[in-house]
């Protein structure tokens, strides 16, 4: 069955970096657009970024553009999100998704 398993979240101080990973299985990963979506406490889902199946293009929300970098390794069926210059507004549960399936999410908390 399809599985998406996020990892790499945690507690980090403002201004620091964190890299999330999402291990995918059960579908043709290298044919799928992949996305990162987040949900801050008490708020709705916010799309963060996506990436073409062959990494030919990447897109970002205005709130993370210039600070976050999405990437993928199709040989490892893994999606990544490098997050730099984190601030409190980045505190959220981060999900990877193909839109057809979702991971369980990983918590990112930015606090001093």
In terms of DSSP E residues, the strand content is over 45%
Helical coverage, percent range:
under 10%
- Cα shape: globular
Helix-strand makeup class: mainly beta
Q: What value does the Rg take, in angstroms?
A: 13 Å
Distance between the termini: 40 Å
pLDDT < 50 runs, ≥5 residues:
none
Order of helices and strands: EEEEEEEEEE
SS elements, strand count: 10
Largest beta sheet: what is the strand line-up?
2-10-9-4-5-6
What is the overall pLDDT average?
A: 97
Largest sheet report: 6 strands, mixed
Helix count, per DSSP?
0
Brief characterization of the structure:
The chain has 112 residues and is an all-beta fold. The chain has strands spanning 3-7, 10-12, 18-25, 34-39, 45-51, 58-60, 68-73, 78-83, 92-97, 106-110. Strands 2-10-9-4-5-6 form a 6-stranded mixed β-sheet, with no helix packed on it.
Describe this structure in words.
The protein has 112 residues and is an all-beta fold. A six-stranded mixed beta sheet has the order 2-10-9-4-5-6, with no helix packed on it. The radius of gyration is 13 Å and the shape is globular. It starts with a strand and ends with a strand.
Describe the secondary structure blueprint for this structure.
Elements: E1 3-7, E2 10-12, E3 18-25, E4 34-39, E5 45-51, E6 58-60, E7 68-73, E8 78-83, E9 92-97, E10 106-110
């Amino acid at each position: 069955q399809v599985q998406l398993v996020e990892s790499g979240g945690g507690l980090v101080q403002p201004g620091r970096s964190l890299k999330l990973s999402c291990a995918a299985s059960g579908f043709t990963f290298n044919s799928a657009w992949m996305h990162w979506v987040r949900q801050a406490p008490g708020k709705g889902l916010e799309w963060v970024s996506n990436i073409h199946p062959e990494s030919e293009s990447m897109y970002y929300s205005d709130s993370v553009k210039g600070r976050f970098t999405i990437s993928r390794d199709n040989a490892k069926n893994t999606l990544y999100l490098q997050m730099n210059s984190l601030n409190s507004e980045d505190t959220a549960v981060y999900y990877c998704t193909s839109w057809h399936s979702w991971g369980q999410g990983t918590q990112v908390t930015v606090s001093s």
